[in-house]
Design goal:
- It is a single chain.
- The protein folds into three domains: 5-123 and 279-351, FAD/NAD(P)-binding domain (3-Layer(bba) Sandwich); 133-276, FAD/NAD(P)-binding domain (3-Layer(bba) Sandwich); 365-429, no CATH class.
- Strand 17 and strand 18 (265-267) form a beta hairpin.
- With 436 residues, the chain is α/β, with parallel strands linked by helices.
- Helix 1 runs parallel beside helix 9 (333-351) and helix 10 (393-411) packs across helix 11 (413-429).
- The protein is built from eleven helices and 27 strands.
- The longest helix is centred in the middle third of the chain and has 23 residues, at 143-165.
- Strands 5-2-1-11-23-22 form a six-stranded mixed β-sheet. Strands 15-14-13-19 form a four-stranded parallel β-sheet. Strands 6-7-10 form a three-stranded antiparallel β-sheet, with no helix packed on it.
């Protein structure tokens, strides 16, 4: 075991967990390499679903994967901890001390040796230094934050229901700063929650009592996606009585309001920041590795960091160049999935003394899901390169298939089929909204 090539993957998000699983099934099972996954949490939930956890449309307990159990089944090791440093000369990464909820140290700071290191630590929200954002905004970077949001949302709805019962009817104002995919989809999920909760006992609360506003600094929502998709999304949000404010940068966030650049102040009891992302700050201090202004590690097309061929990075935390363009690979789930596939081949080649595989991103399109109302999107043609607009049930089918593809990568076809059947049974037996 000690003589085996040791591949350490830091970050158990979509790409990191898929890579560790593939390497474990291929190399770990045959004792060709030792595979270790490091993550600060004990469980994995697909990040594009966090807004559904936050609104209560998805029960995280039924959809999370326990790293320890998954590691045992797929022939890799799991280490609980948060990476905080790197010693490239010694080929060791530093894991911060782990503390319990009371602050007592459970495991001291430790080091893990590696032969090949892969960093897939994802991204965090970027508030661009907006005054008050850190103190007064809610974020959806992690499962913990999504669960906290859900509890706060239920309490806010319960409070408004009680106020109405007492004869005081005032709107609950919710503001979502940033109209990318997360912000738009969250708005639809919150509207669904405002309509579902009265069915489950909050019968003094009406959907019209909940005012939801999406604020975007650009001149249209979903600014990174095609204009037709943006227009369709705007129409759907307005149909669901969600206010859409575009061309409106936020200058300050207060405890109970949002201040726009032109001085307009909007009341907001709950404010969610979904306006941008950046890589974790500790990446800028990793023994001299090259990073950009967003803390992303700069990598070659092979996903190797520019200053160390033994350290790879991919997903949201890496800036990967592409041929014939000056734009790096976009921070999207499909990009991380594709990079995990390419890196799997590269690391297998590495053990055989073969060359790494250059990564080429293929944009398969974008899908925006409006909860149970509708789904819109565009699919890219492999041959023509043109996009095809889709909506409704067909688009919803493609949207759901993205998550199922992730599950197939982690569990295989047979087990994913069983999980799908269990999901169907659970949805038939459980409330349509998580109520606690």
């Amino acid at each position: 075991m000690d003589n085996l090539h040791h591949i350490v993957v830091v970050g158990g998000g979509a790409g990191g967990l898929e890579l560790a699983t593939s390497l474990g099934n291929k190399l770990g099972r045959k004792k060709r390499a030792r595979i270790t996954l490091v993550d600060a949490g004990l469980t994995h939930v697909w990040k594009p679903l966090l807004h559904e956890v936050a609104s209560g449309s998805l029960d995280a307990n039924a959809n999370e994967i326990n790293y320890r159990a998954h590691a045992r089944k797929h022939h890799y090791e799991f280490q609980l901890g948060r990476m905080c440093g790197l010693d490239r000369d010694a080929r060791q990464l530093v894991i911060a001390a782990f503390h319990d909820e009371d602050g007592a140290e459970v495991v001291p700071e430790r080091r893990i040796s590696y032969d090949t290191l892969v960093l897939a630590v994802g991204s965090t929200a970027n508030d661009f230094g907006t005054p008050g954002a850190k103190d007064h905004c809610l974020f959806l970077d992690s499962l913990k934050q999504a669960r906290r949001f859900h509890n706060l949302m239920l309490n806010a709805f319960l409070r408004k229901n009680h106020e109405t019962l007492q004869g005081t009817r005032r709107a609950l104002n919710i503001s979502i700063i940033g109209a990318g995919a997360t912000g738009v989809e969250l708005a639809a999920e919150l509207r669904l929650a405002s309509r579902e909760l009265p069915v489950y006992g909050m019968n003094h609360l009406q959907a019209s009592d909940v005012s939801i506003t999406v604020i975007e600094a650009a001149d249209r929502i979903l600014p990174a996606l095609p204009g037709r998709l943006s227009a369709a999304a705007t129409r759907e949000l307005e149909r669901q009585h969600v206010k859409v404010l575009t061309g409106q940068p936020v200058s300050e966030v207060r405890a109970d309001s949002v201040v726009m650049k032109d001085g307009t102040e909007l009341p907001s009891e709950m404010t969610i920041w979904a306006a941008g992302i950046k890589a974790p700050a500790f990446l800028a201090e990793l023994d001299g590795l090259e990073v950009n202004k967003g803390n992303q590690l700069i990598v070659a097309q092979t996903l190797q960091t520019t200053l160390d061929a033994n350290v790879f990075a991919f997903g949201d935390c890496a800036a990967c160049p592409q041929p014939d363009t000056d734009k790096p690979v976009p921070p999207r789930a499909q990009a991380a999935h594709q990079q995990a596939d390419a890196l799997f081949k590269t690391l297998c080649n590495r053990l055989d003394g073969k060359d790494p595989v250059p990564f080429v991103y293929k944009d398969h399109g974008s899908l925006i899901n409006f909860s149970r109302y509708t789904t819109v999107g565009n699919l890219m043609g492999n041959l023509s390169g043109r996009s095809m607009y889709i909506e409704g049930r067909v688009a919803r089918l493609f949207y759901v298939s993205l998550y199922r593809m992730h599950q197939v990568a982690l569990h295989g076809m047979l087990r994913t089929g069983v999980i799908w059947l269990m999901d169907k049974i659970s949805r038939a037996m459980q409330p349509r909204l998580k109520l606690h």
